[in-house]
Design brief:
Elements: E1 7-12, E2 17-23, E3 26-33, H1 47-52, E4 55-60, H2 78-91, E5 97-103, H3 106-115, E6 123-128, H4 140-146, H5 151-159, H6 161-176, H7 181-200, H8 206-214, H9 216-224, H10 228-233, E7 237-242, H11 250-259, E8 263-268, H12 274-277, H13 279-286
Parallel strand pairs: 3-4, 3-5, 5-6, 6-7, 7-8
Antiparallel strand pairs: 1-2, 2-4
Helix pairs in contact: 2-3, 4-8, 6-7
Pfam families: Abhydrolase_1
Protein name: Alpha/beta fold hydrolase
GO molecular function, one term: oxidoreductase activity
Length: 290
């Protein structure tokens, strides 16, 4: 263990390695996954509370994000992220896990339970997507990059730090519109810089972000055809949702409930990053004390 009380791992994924932190505790391990365009830092407030509850916790950066490799010419996809999760489970010899998906890692969490039910105790989703939902509204930044016939425009934006910064600032303001003042302050001091660093630091997360968003609508369609398989596994799914998220709103969680055999829904007065806005409450629910 290092001074931060976790073990660090690098797990090879062929086209690069992914960065993993492992905190000791009782199984099943919570395996926490981030969306785009952020990284494992979105769990900084939650991890200490889960480990204080005695649980083993694993958190990692997907290839192309955070401290994981960002090799030139790498191919990024939802399937690749599912493979990243499986590589972590195998690399750390995890038996039973609780995959925790936030935002764009919802598909990895659910599809891992479908493909490897023997390794999954339950699934936890936080303001995530899996299939298209009637109330879903995707962030303007995401929808822009997900619209494939605008690829020439989005590639030009990525090549211009000034233009991309403007788009990020616009999106940041939209996410903060319905947050409480203390939540806005935390966003400005912590979350905004975390996301910016993903793009500013070189090599950048820009290629991974652009490739992943371009596959968004295709992934939603694929998942619509296989969600019935999660019903067949009878694996319970815990939905923890920030109700003031203007995009991946709690209507998505309610829709998912209708598609799941065993699920529970907890709606909290928080925004998109519910684990940062209300970490104490989220930890209570995940640990079964909520």
């Amino acid at each position: 263990m290092n001074e931060n009380n976790y073990l660090e791992h690098r797990i090879d994924r062929g086209q690069g390695s992914i960065y993993v932190r492992e905190y000791a505790g009782k199984d099943p391990a919570f395996v926490l996954m981030h969306g785009f365009p952020d990284n494992l830092g979105i769990y900084d407030r939650l991890v200490p509370l889960l480990t204080a509850g005695g649980r083993r916790v694993v958190v990692f950066d997907f290839l192309g994000f955070g401290a994981s490799d960002k090799p030139a010419g790498a191919k990024y996809s939802f399937e690749q992220q599912l493979g990243d999760l499986h590589a972590v489970v195998q690399g750390l010899n995890l038996n039973k896990i609780v995959p925790v998906g936030h935002d764009a890692s919802g598909p990895a969490a659910v599809n891992y339970a479908i493909e490897h039910p023997e390794h999954v105790e339950s699934v936890c989703l936080m303001n995530a997507f899996y299939v298209d939902s009637p109330t879903a509204k995707y962030p303007e930044l995401i929808e822009l990059f997900a619209t494939t016939n605008l690829k020439a425009l989005t590639q030009a934006i990525l090549r211009s730090p000034e233009q991309f910064a403007w788009v990020l600032n616009f999106q940041r303001s939209k996410f903060q519109e319905h947050l409480k003042e203390d939540q806005k302050d935390f966003y400005a001091k912590f979350l905004g810089p975390l996301i910016d660093a993903n793009f500013r630091n070189q090599p950048s997360s820009g290629p991974a972000f652009a490739q992943m968003t371009s596959q968004l609508f295709e992934e939603l369609a694929k998942n619509a055809k296989r969600i019935n398989k999660i019903w067949a596994t009878a694996i319970p799914v815990q939905l923890i949702w920030g109700e003031t998220d203007p995009y991946l709103n709690f209507g998505i969680a309610k829709h998912l409930q209708t598609l799941l055999k065993h699920s529970s829904l907890h709606v909290l007065p928080a925004g998109h990053w519910v684990q940062l806005d209300m970490p104490d409450r989220v930890a209570q629910i995940m640990l079964g004390n909520g």
